[in-house]
Amino acid sequence: MSALRLSLWQHGIFFLVLGLVSLPVVFLILGSFSTARLPGDFSLDTMGWVNYVKVYGDPGTYELFTNTFIYVTGSVLIGISMAVALAWLVERTNMPGKIWIYAGVPMTLAVPGMLQAMAWVILLSPRIGFINKSLQSLFNLSEPPIDIYTLGGMVFLEGLRLVPTAFLMLVPLMRGMDPSLEEAAAVSGARVIAKIRAIGIQLADRRAIGDDRFFRRHWRAACKAESAMVDVITQGFIAQHCGRVHPLSQRRNRARDAVEVKLLNSL
Question: Which of 123, 156, 176 corresponds to the end of one domain?
Answer without folding.
Answer: 176
